[in-house]
Amino acid sequence: MTMGLKTSRRITLEALGADIERRRADSGVTDLPRNSGERRTESKRALLEAIKAVGGKW
Fold this sequence. Notes:
By secondary structure, this protein is an all-alpha fold. The chain has helices at about 15-25, 40-55.
């Protein structure tokens, strides 16, 4: 017996984001702690700084 990957319906990123926000509100968890980033590689740190420099929020 083999198990195949069953795909589900496709949704937009906007719909996914709204669903996540709804679930957070329903659970009462609205402020999740961020990763401390203590073990990030230099390339990851550079990427996050570049995102921040153009006004992005990771």
